Amino acid sequence: MKADYRSMWRELGLDLEAHDALLQGLGTAYRDVVAGQKNRPAAMAYLDFVMSEVHGLRIKELLDAKASGRKVIGAFCVFVPEEIVLAADAILVGLCTGADFALEEVEKILPRNTCSLIKSAFGFKLSKVCPYLEAADMVVGENTCDGKKKAYEQFKHLTPNLYVMDLPQQKTASGRQLLAQEFRRFLKVVEELCGVEITAERLRRGIELVNAKRVALSRLARLRAADPVPISGLDALLINQVAFYDDPRRFTDAVNKLCDELEERVGSQAGVFPTVTPRILLSGCPMAVPNWKIYDLVERAGAVIVGEESCVGERGWRNLTKADGATLDELLEAVIDRYFAVDCAVFTPNAEREQHVKEMYQEYRADGVIHYSLQFCQPYIIESMPMEQRLQDQGLNFLRIETDYSGEDVGQLQTRIEAFIEIIS
Amino acid sequence: MKADYRSMWRELGLDLEAHDALLQGLGTAYRDVVAGQKNRPAAMAYLDFVMSEVHGLRIKELLDAKASGRKVIGAFCVFVPEEIVLAADAILVGLCTGADFALEEVEKILPRNTCSLIKSAFGFKLSKVCPYLEAADMVVGENTCDGKKKAYEQFKHLTPNLYVMDLPQQKTASGRQLLAQEFRRFLKVVEELCGVEITAERLRRGIELVNAKRVALSRLARLRAADPVPISGLDALLINQVAFYDDPRRFTDAVNKLCDELEERVGSQAGVFPTVTPRILLSGCPMAVPNWKIYDLVERAGAVIVGEESCVGERGWRNLTKADGATLDELLEAVIDRYFAVDCAVFTPNAEREQHVKEMYQEYRADGVIHYSLQFCQPYIIESMPMEQRLQDQGLNFLRIETDYSGEDVGQLQTRIEAFIEIIS
Predict the structure, then answer these.
(1) C-beta of residue A117 within 8 angstroms of C-beta of residue A97
(2) Nearest-by-Cβ selection for B169 from A166, A172, A381
(3) In whole angstroms, what is the distance from residue B24 CA to residue B27 CA?
(4) How many beta carbons lie within 10 A of that of residue B51, not counting itself?
(5) For residue A339, what are the contacts with CB-CB under 8 A and spacing of at least 6?
(6) Hey, what's the torsion of the CAs at A19, A25, A31, A33, to 10 degrees?
(7) Peptide bond before A379: cis, by omega within 30 degrees of 0?
(8) Which of B37, B85, B413, B8 has its CA nearest to residue B235?
């Protein structure tokens, strides 16, 4: 980090000592895991810069925006419609959930058998080390899984500006109605928070801005179908992670610039790994910064991850929102349709997801799927068992992994991953 | 069991060998745990008879009813509206979920980190040892927790006559609308299954029948407020468990007869345990037959359980359904209102439940609460942590237990329960 942001962090209410420790850990992990990779595209320099300033310049930007009257909304999940947030000139940021922090304190509030992502959110809050959370004017929780849904009851005591958005469990007419009502309620709340009336024109602009980001991420993903693959899975994951923090317009431009470079690589058959590298599709739970554990293990073991069927990945951006509605209502219906199509495992049934895994397997020419679940994430873990069975029956290679944010199982995971790569090579 | 039911079981498709083993285990457990208690009310003889014929005479009754054209509907949860089932002259039965069976086979389909209740349902199905499940014309699953919701996707393959009922997660207008739509859909399905048009008169009769059962169980519960307590917690639990299997009219009569006897006991200050016995309120997850583990431990350790804030207990029957509607629609709205008030931990927030625990604590003159969660039941476990904190702050004694259906932790539980009884004595 170039500038001295200590007074900014202090004013935000961060615990400076704990935050220093966090940044130091993050910096070391970044150097060891991300920056140490070979053959990185030159355009990744932008991502390196963003990451180096993720608690610095980006936070200053948010605070400057707040000073100019804009609002910051924090979210934990891809079900929070960024289109509506942007329509009100507010800024949507993903909140810190990718590392263990203050685990002992967290486990006084939440059961030990809670997934790392939820515990992490609590750890960052209790330790006062997430500047995004502290900068947010409103924090949106969503009733996806049991863990989050019930944990938000507790989180509300720590974060009084928590707003809970309900979600359906089935893709029925009743389910869609519930989502529609919740999105309409969210739109009103955002309007009130921002003192803005969301018009059709504003919502269309919001839709176009988010769609542009999705199109850029989609362009990046398609380039990974090439063999040799022009970018590591780890760098691609990082880009998908930064998508939740960065200014959407600037980020979209940066991804498109990166794609220009990757297209040249593909054209000249230049890859980040040799052609013979086994190709793996990652499927399952989201991975927030700095959760790079599986990617690091896989790519150090001589394989490459060519796609992520994950919220931090294709599940998060593959569907566009139709922007051709004439009225606010038509556009809002398009937003509802778009999110109602997200194939998260909290829905039952959720057959589209397995179909999508198969499509990605073909499209990215994968040799195997690694299904990644956070421990105790019942929706993804339960869904993964029949998926494994059926995909294996169809001849696809499939490895199920359950893990958390600790390093305790790295040795065991490495052994399993190396054995899997051996099989699919 | 008096008669020879083997041909009946064979025709139902049960695995006779596995079923013999189940019955033998159940019989031994019943003799050791339930029948071995002292000072049992004479009227418990009815319950002993019902339990001795739970896979015999009762199943024969169901099959006779089926032969006469009635339908049998199986359920796993108190959210399935018995009023509607009875209105169509069908029979609602609770399905077997109280013991481990074929665990190794189950854990090929479901994660090990799934609660015992869900695994048990699968175990009984895979082993073909639950005559209720095999006799059911329709099995109703409900989207309560993540575990059940996602497990039903698998259960559907084992049980093609599974019907899934969606449930809301919040007690909002949207949530009630979703429940209403689901109950209307269920009514139609039951009508179709039974070839019956449910009229206002029929539904009112169904409501009155279920209400009578609830009133009888409520009467029994109130009698347990007496000191000395006229019936053991274990016998009261057994009655609450049998409520899910037995013919509702006959069961209601039997409970009322038992209450007559208990009133005499209370009048003459005759108790099942001495006056000095520490009194415990049980709160949390449901306990299906033969899950008597905690009750057995508590009452052998010299305390008595005086109430159960549980689905198999007060959460299951405390709210009555208003029967004074004139039209089918008014009556159905009353049914919806009634179930929408159930304070299950799958709802968020669910503050009514904590309030109810406090009320029961006062009403039944409890000296402590034992909060019982099945391992990996995230809704109840997460909810219990702040509840423990707040109730302890208000001076209530509170012990949180997480367990499963195995006997592995009995020694450890015994130590913790004895220490708790020591504290509250």
Answers:
(1) yes
(2) A166
(3) 5
(4) 23
(5) A79, A81, A179, A183
(6) -130
(7) no
(8) B37
Q: What is the DSSP string of B158-169?
A: H-TTEEEE---S
Question: Dmax over Cα atoms in chain B, in whole Å?
Answer: 58
Instruction: Name the minimum distance, in Å, from the CA of A308 to any CA of chain B.
Output: 22
Q: What is the pTM (predicted TM-score) of this model?
A: 0.97
Average pLDDT for B276-296: 97
Q: Which two tokens stand for residue B60?
A: 């024969």
Contacts of A354 in chain B (CB under 8 A): none
The DSSP result for B241-306, as a single string, is HHTTTS-HHHHHHHHHHHHHHHHHHHHTT--SS-TT--EEEEEES---TT--HHHHHHHHTT-EEE
Closest CA to A416 of A277, A297, A308, A307: A297
Instruction: Tell me if A382 and B111 make a contact (CB, 8 A cut-off).
Output: yes
> Could A381 and B154 be called an inter-chain contact, meaning their C-beta atoms sit closer than 8 Å?
no
Confidence of residue A112 (pLDDT cuts 50, 70, 90): very high
Chain A residues lying within 8 Å of B350, measured CB to CB: 153
Helix axes A173-194, B173-194, angle to 10 degrees: 180
Mean pLDDT along residues B319-331: 98
| The length of chain B, given as a count of residues | 425
What pLDDT, in 10s, does the model give residues B167-181? 999 999 999 999 999
Q: Can you read off the two tokens belonging to residue A132?
A: 């995004």
Q: Which pLDDT does position B1 carry in this prediction? A: 59
Reading the block at residue B380, the tokens are 């109840």
Scanning every residue of chain A, which has its alpha carbon at the shortest distance from the alpha carbon of B113? A376
Mutate to test the interface with A, among B382, B400, B403 (most CBs of A within 10 A): B382
Report yes or no: A105 at the B interface, CB cutoff 8 Å.
no
Q: Given phi > 0 = left and psi -120 to 50 = alpha, else beta, which region is B269?
A: left
Number of neighbouring beta carbons within 10 Å of residue A322 = 15
Chain A CB contacts of B171 under 8 Å are none
Helix (H, G, I), strand (E, B) or coil at B72: strand
Structure token pair of residue B245: 């299997």
- Alpha helix locations (H) across A13-68? 16-29, 44-52, 57-67
Q: How far is B323 from chain A (nearest CA, A)?
A: 27
Residues 6+ apart with CB under 8 A from A41: A230, A231, A235, A258, A261, A262, A265, A272
Query: Any idea what the Cα angle at residue B134 is, between residues B130 and B135, rounded to 5°?
Result: 115
Kindly indicate the confidence band of residue B18, based on its pLDDT and cuts at 50, 70 and 90: very high
Cα–Cα distance for residue pair A414/A417, rounded to 1 Å: 5
C-beta separation of B196 from B88 below 8 A: yes
Which pLDDT score is estimated for A4?
86
Question: How close are the terminal C-alpha atoms of chain B, in Å?
Answer: 41
Say yes or no: A381 contacts chain B, CB-CB below 8 A. Answer: yes
List for chain A the helix, strand, coil content (%; round to 5): 55, 10, 35
DSSP A343-410: --TTSSS-HHHHHHHHHHHHHTT-SEEEEEEETT-HHHHHHHHHHHHHHHHTT--EEEEEE-SSSTTH
Contacts of A109 in chain B (CB under 8 A): 385-386
Does residue B397 register a pLDDT over 60?
Answer: yes
- Average pLDDT estimate for B251-268: 98
Q: Taking the CA of residue A300 as centre, how many other CA atoms within 13 Å lie in the half-sphere pointing to its CB?
A: 15
Which chain B residues are closer than 8 Å to A110 by Cβ? 382, 385
Q: Which residues of A are less than 8 Å from B113 in CB distance?
A: 113, 375-376, 378, 381
Under the phi-then-psi rule, with left for phi > 0, alpha for psi from -120 to 50, and beta for the rest, what region is A365?
Answer: left
* Residues present in chain A in total: 425
Cβ neighbours around A333 below 10 Å, total? 16
Would strands A279-284 and A368-374 be described as parallel, antiparallel, or unpaired? parallel
